Amino acid sequence: MLVASGRANAEDKSTQQSSAVIRSEETVFTVNAIDNATTTFKARITINNSNGDDRAKIYIPYDKLSKVNYVKGILYDATGKKVKHLKNNDIKDVSAVSSVSLFDDNRVKYADLVHITYPYTVEFEYQITSKNMMFYPTWAPLDGENLSVENASLRVEMPKGMKLRYHESNVPDKVKLAHTSTHDVYQWQVQNLLPVRIEPYGPGLKNMVPIVRTAPVAFEIDGYQGNMESWESYGQFMHKLNQGRDVLPAETTQMLKTKVAGAKTPQEKIQIVYDYLQSKTRYVSIQLGIGGWQPFEASFVDTKGYGDCKALTNYTQAMLKVVGIDSYQALIRAGDDETDILTEFPSSQFNHVVLYVPTDKEGIWLECTSQEVAAGYAGSHTGGRHALLITPEGGKLIKTPDYSAKDNVQQRTASVKLDEKGNGKASVLTYYTGLQQESRNGILHHYKPEDQKKWIYQQTKIPSFEITSFSLTEKKESLPAITEKLELDLRQSATISGKRMFLTANLMNKWTSAPEPLESRKTEVIRAMAFLDIDNITYELPAGYALEYKPHDVAVKTEFGEYKSSVKVDGQKVTYVRSLEMSKGTYSKELYPKYLEFLNQIIKNDAQQVVFVKNIP
């Protein structure tokens, strides 16, 4: 019997710091042939507190191209006594469909061995046979915070004559090669990995922990053979999956040609087709077919009015083709927080498909799954990263649009009329563009008016106020914009103390916090988004107040950004102007104190007050 080692290692520092400790983990990936492989996984994990309970649960996804051969599990208490052994009825088997999934081959087996007292230890073992050879393992044993690893290994067994491609990141010991009579064996091992701490404005976990990514050269999936040694050859395989699936009904072809008959430019044609797509179709997940990667025919989408990212992109490409516009499907790793692909390692790193239309200028990107996104806007979902164009000649990497500070603007003008008690009425007009408009664009399209109002209450950084009216107006262009209008009643916008009035000139855009200082920072400083905020706030004071003190004008410029603020007083009129432009980039860890200094300067100046004294006859 395998006995839990929670007590024996109670004094171990890594255990004390960790919510869970992987005592041992073994992954063996055996390629049996070009079209199938077997994965065997074993792990023994000690759970130290409730934050580690997720490690006592196991989820094993599969589909029609894979089979779960067995699942085993044992729970031990702190003394090493066996508490539970997984039985067949403890292992649930359910559809893995999402709320937007209509057809889906994906299923998941899962089991739960969470215990009520700590520490406890679980053992899991399972085996999968797969015929989806587009995907070889990615091995990252230290895949979370508050986790430590005592021993973990990856073993990949390749038939003689089949080449394994791999990419190592932060791996302390490089691959070890061995050979059997039938296979070449690649093995990696890590030991005594301590918990990783993600530092403020630091890189994500994937950039800090040991990771081995593996991929084939030649592979086969559902009778289709491909080659992944280069982006070009991988693109040739994807192009082969798409061939012959772009045929539209004759009546649809004629309708589209009629629609674009009056268009004077290719851009007008693209917009007409894209508008038609957005009005006619909706997104549903359809994880069927060749590993979910082959699109449904364009005629299917035309008839049904729905499809997944592959089907809708293929449909849009087909429609553009019949009106004389060439375009290319593009594989991409989508997601607001997703990192870019490893361009130096051709492999299946993608989770989404978009469409790229070459033009005389920079080209137009089309997100074919959305009914709201403007043509040409990639945004936080797919912007600023590499995509793989699928062309007849093969795959070609291309960068999607990135967004600078001048693209991501929040420009606000406001007028505030104050009364004798410091209360006020404010009219606020804010213009948001690029990444800064995305959240409001989302609530405009998906929230009811009453829920929009609740959301605006939550987002408006004023201590005490009421919204008397509001509106959101969209400008749907390649750099989209939202105009927000607010009418507000403000309570104690200025503070009255005796004969003095204290006014914090920054109405609703204060920077209020900075991360903690670090004595010994280990990672670079990363700013992931550039933006520009401009505020122009005008106050009308009640009669009888004279200026006693106003802050000095401020101008601070660093490699991280530039901050300016000024206050002007003309009789009963106070004008506050503030601008903050922040850069996007990666900076050395030695600059972290300087970055904190810059943030604290912003915090200090945003909180500055103008002081007035009342003239008493």
Give a description of the structure.
The chain is an alpha+beta fold and 617 residues long. Helix content is 17%, strand content 41%. The chain is built from 10 helices and 39 strands. The chain has an 8-stranded mixed sheet. An 8-stranded mixed sheet has the order 28-29-27-26-33-37-36-35, with helices on one face. Strand 16 and strand 17 form a beta hairpin. Helix 4 packs across helix 6 and helix 5 packs across helix 6. The N terminus is likely disordered.
How would a crystallographer describe the biggest sheet?
A: 8 strands, mixed
Shape, per Cα inertia axes? globular
- pLDDT < 50 runs, ≥5 residues: 1-11
Major sheet strand order: 5-4-9-2-1-11-14-13
Note the total helix count: 10
What proportion of the residues is helical, as a percent range?
A: 10-25%
> Mean pLDDT, rounded to whole units?
93
Write the layout of secondary structure elements.
Blueprint: H1 13-17, E1 20-33, E2 36-47, E3 57-62, E4 66-76, E5 82-85, E6 92-95, E7 101-104, E8 107-112, E9 120-130, E10 138-139, E11 147-159, E12 164-169, E13 176-179, E14 183-193, E15 211-216, E16 218-221, E17 224-227, H2 231-242, H3 250-259, H4 266-280, E18 282-283, E19 285-287, H5 298-304, E20 306-307, H6 309-322, E21 328-332, E22 352-357, E23 364-366, H7 379-382, E24 386-391, E25 394-399, E26 409-418, E27 424-433, H8 438-446, H9 449-459, E28 465-475, E29 481-490, E30 494-497, E31 500-504, E32 525-527, E33 531-540, E34 545-549, E35 554-557, E36 561-570, E37 573-582, E38 585-587, H10 592-606, E39 609-614
Parallel strand pairs: 1-11, 7-19, 18-20, 26-33
Antiparallel strand pairs: 1-2, 2-9, 3-8, 4-5, 4-9, 6-8, 10-15, 11-14, 12-15, 13-14, 16-17, 21-22, 21-24, 22-23, 24-25, 26-27, 27-29, 28-29, 30-31, 31-39, 32-38, 33-37, 34-39, 35-36, 36-37
Helix pairs in contact: 4-6, 5-6
